[in-house]
Design brief:
By secondary structure, this protein is an all-alpha fold. The protein has helices spanning 2-30, 35-46, 49-60, 64-89, 96-116, 124-145, 160-192, 196-208, 210-221, 225-250, 257-281, 286-305; strands spanning 92-93, 283-284. A two-stranded antiparallel sheet has the order 1-2. It is globular. It starts with a helix and ends with a helix.
């Protein structure tokens, strides 16, 4: 039963996140919002809706390790699995000038997360500070993108009623999906004795990153692997500043000791490896992609050893 709840929850989160992004984008287009604003806010944060919904639900259920595991697990999956698979499909060119701002913001996000897990509790004040950092990042990014020519729309905006339907149904799907996923993880934790942090790092973190993984492979096959790299860095920024910040504002959460002791360093090492390759060598080769995938496989195996046997 717990496996069914988890699978249903992941499916609803994926469908809901996609519907919410599509509906929000169409509404923004109807309101004639700038393309840069749509991309940086609606699409960027919409991609983190599964992590946000799962983390908030875990916080309400008094399972802070599950919430932290979702953020850390999603970041590790995005940096090692998503970027690694995209580079393994086709080498990723990483223009230093274009990625410099995102790389700096992602570094700050990783440092902020490492600092937060050392605190006894992350309260609403710290959560608001993290969310404010995200707002500043979006404003700064939009300011830099305002002079870029906006691409011509691929199609006419959808009817406003359809956009509203997508957005509302997306909220409903993600809400029920988060409840199902967290309930399934709680039951699995009770049945198997697995730690909440491990379930968050594996099932929730990896599952919430599946949409980014699919998009990264498609982008790489089309020769636009830099989009996969940019979206992975953006996911790190939104997960730390947005997901963790909003979750702490909704309900204070205590960082789990095991994530503070080990997993945060895996996340930091993954970020350092990706950023070093992107900024120093300006390309992520297939060999680098396979190395990232090997690192993620090793990390998953290590987490598997933490499951009760």
């Amino acid at each position: 039963m717990d496996v069914i709840l988890i699978v249903v929850g992941l499916a609803l989160l994926t469908i809901g996140g996609e519907a919410l992004v599509r509906g929000s984008v169409e509404l923004a287009r109807r309101l004639r919002a700038p393309e840069a604003v749509i991309g940086l806010t609606l699409v960027g944060f919409g991609a983190s809706v599964p992590e946000l919904a799962a983390s908030v639900e875990a916080a309400f259920e008094a399972r802070p390790a599950l919430a932290f595991g979702a953020v850390a697990g999603s970041n590790i999956a995005n940096l090692l699995l998503v970027v690694g698979l995209a580079a393994a499909v086709r080498p990723i060119e990483a223009p230093r000038r274009a990625l410099w701002g995102d790389a700096g913001a992602a570094t700050l996000a990783l440092v902020a997360f490492a600092a937060c897990v050392r605190l006894p509790v992350i309260d609403a004040t710290i959560g608001a500070a993290l969310a404010a950092a995200l707002v500043l990042y979006v404003i700064w990014s939009w300011w830099g993108a305002r002079e870029r020519p906006a691409p011509a729309p691929e199609a006419a905006p959808a009817p406003i009623w359809l956009a509203v339907l997508f957005a509302v149904s997306g909220i409903g799907f993600t809400t029920f999906g988060a409840k199902s996923l967290v309930e399934g993880c709680i039951r699995m934790s009770t049945d198997t004795g697995a730690a909440d942090s491990v379930l968050g790092l594996t099932i929730v973190g990896l599952g919430a990153s599946l949409p980014e993984l699919t998009a990264a492979v498609i982008a790489a096959l089309r020769g636009r692997g830099s989009l996969a790299l940019g979206s992975a860095l953006g996911a790190v920024i939104y997960n730390v500043f947005g997901v963790l910040g909003v979750t702490a504002m909704v309900r204070p959460i205590a960082p789990p000791r095991d994530i503070a002791a080990f997993d945060v360093w895996v996340m930091a090492g993954a970020g350092a490896a990706v950023l070093a390759a992107a900024l120093l060598w300006r390309v992520l080769s297939r060999r680098a992609g396979w190395a990232l995938l090997l690192g993620y496989s090793g990390y998953m195996y290590w987490l598997y050893t933490r499951f009760p046997q």
